[in-house]
Amino acid sequence: MWSESRNVCPISGRNFGFGGRPDLGSTLVPSSPHPHEDLLAHLTRTSPLGPREAARVVAEVLAYFSESTEEYVRRRHTELQARGLTNERIFARLTEELPQRRVSAPELSARQLRRIVYG
Predict the structure, then answer these.
(1) Given 4, 81, 90, 103, which residue has the most CB atoms within 10 angstroms?
(2) Range of the domain at 27
């Protein structure tokens, strides 16, 4: 049986308003269109992803790219430190990675990076 949860993003809980079955007499309140409805349609048309999976992928990508410079530096420092890299190597790598971000960060010195990580 159809359920309302089929068209709800598992991360944000938003109702995307597609996939409904009006023939079942659903009493769902029409939702506003998803802000990236055209991207979701493209992904479901050009990949094996269903609407829910496409919505989850879009939400994950948007969350990844909405990360602030400080959040990115802290996250990557923790990841690279867990791999056994020293701070010297980590800060050098972060200096290379930051300009490659979707919205590139300003140039940060090793000292600025250290301040972000350690306060």
Answers:
(1) 90
(2) 4-65
